[in-house]
Amino acid sequence: MLFLIDYDRVSGSVITIQRFDDSERTAAENARLELELKLNRQGTQREVVLLEAPSEHALRRTHRRYFEDLASLTKRVNKHPVWDPDWAGGGVKEKNQEQIALGKELMQFGADLLLRSLSSAPDDAANHSVLAVLFRQGLVALDAVMIALEEAAVPASQVHLRVQMETRWGLIYALRDPGKWGRHIYVSSLREQRLWAARLVPGTPEFDTYEDSRRMIEAGGGQSTKGDNRDFIDAIDAILTRPENASINAEFKRFEAKWRHPAPWFFDGNVPQASRIRSVGGLARAVGCKGEYDTLYRHSSYYVHGGFTGTSLRYEDQGVMISAIRSPEGWRQAFLLSVSLAIDSFRRVIEHYRPGETQSFSSRYVQHWRSIIQKTPDAQVVIQRIVNR
User: Fold this and answer.
1) C or N: which end of the chain has fewer Cβ atoms within 10 Å?
2) Most confident of the ranges 84-93, 211-220, 345-354
3) Contacts of 39 (CB under 8 A, 6+ apart)
């Protein structure tokens, strides 16, 4: 059966519920559209959903939030104070079905867009690098965020949100001149491959600097690798000395000699000193995202570096309160940020590589994605935290 529900999130109550047989799906979808248009004309903010279940009893069991008041729902608290995945994930899968499905749809759209863009982009290493490195890595991060959110691992999603932000800034910057910056990515990547290859060749400076890591691998029962990669290194050197790569490689060498670490791909030693970008923060400023870097990126960095008490514990009269590892708290905010970053990246790639798809992309967002995004529910939970004295 199909059930069309008009739900008031403010009062936490069902206004109307209409029932349709499976054979009446078209009528149900038309009724949903008519109801949404009516509420929009009235300026009324309510949640309209069309759900499928074998019976109304099953619907009330699988979608409890529409039929139980907040007091009843918040009685469902975690059994383990630090890690209770069944409690955390169960609530999310009840309340956020549409958003979880949208995350998967966005991933499929992005993966298809990557292939379409590669087919129409100039067939060179520079454009390959912009799309298959920066844009693809943004999709990897989006996929990881959505997997984490489906399991209510909101803290873990922050790690991948940071990657989404960083790759989007890089994409914005690279799309200003894909021929130049894609080449920078390509040369930077070759230099990184050369470094790893040299670390496996005894007698090289790179091999000696890798000694601490090699001891750690062997202490853990692993086997460190050694080998003669000189032919591979020579092949990379031959590519790096080509005219289109040589000047960039020389810039990166000078940077590394001065700062004692590899140059980021977005570094350009040929521009005035004040315009040179040496850090992710500088990259964010260069693309007009300083506010995003100072707030959202900084917040996500707490989960990456693990050195901030605010995301892990707090002190109260009872003792030390430790945050749950999995929790739906902050689910809506994490989802909205991830989706926003992804859709903006899609738009920029389409405008540059697939301009003929701009209108259809905008229509898809307005007619389908936007309504699902706007009605993303807030988490309404009670969390019992561990107390240590």
Assistant:
1) C
2) 345-354
3) 6, 45, 46, 48
Closest CA to 194 of 161, 234, 162, 254: 234
Is pLDDT of 208 > 80? Answer: no
Give a three-class secondary structure readout of the chain. Answer: CEEEEEEECCCCEEEEEEEECHHHHHHHHHHHHHHHHHHHHHCCCCEEEEEECCCHHHHHHHCHHHCCCHHHHCCCCCCCCCCCHHHHHHHHHHHCHHHHHHHHHHHHHHHHHHHHHHHHCCCCHHHHHHHHHHHHHHHHHHHHHHHHHHCCEHHHHHHHHHHHHHHHHHHHHHCCCHHHHHHHHHHHHHHHHHHHHHCCCCCCHHHHHCHHHHHHHHHCCCCCCCCCCHHHHHHHHHHHCCHHHHHHHHHHHHHHHHHCCCCCCCCCCCCCHHHCCCCHHHHHHHCCCHHHHHHHHHHHHHHHHCCCHHHCEEEECCEEEECCCCECCCHHHHHHHHHHHHHHHHHHHHHHHCHHHHHHHHHHHHHHHHHHHHCCCCCCCCCCCEEEC
Question: What would the mean pLDDT of 143-164 be, rounded to a whole number?
Answer: 96
Query: CA torsion sign, 97 to 100 to 105 to 106?
Result: positive
C-alpha dihedral sign at 379, 382, 388, 389: positive
Count of beta carbons in the 10 Å neighbourhood of residue 215: 11
Which pair of structure tokens corresponds to residue 204?
Answer: 């090289």
Read off the pLDDT of residues 367-383 as tens digits, 9 standing for 90 and up. Answer: 999 999 999 987 766 56
With bands split at pLDDT 50, 70 and 90, how would you rate the model's confidence at 73?
very low
Model pTM above 0.85: no
Burial letters 220-245, b for 16+ CB under 10 A, else e:
eeeeeeeeebeebbeebeebbeeeeb
Over pLDDT 90: what percentage of the chain?
62
pLDDT digits over 236-267, tens only? 999 999 999 999 999 999 999 999 999 999 99
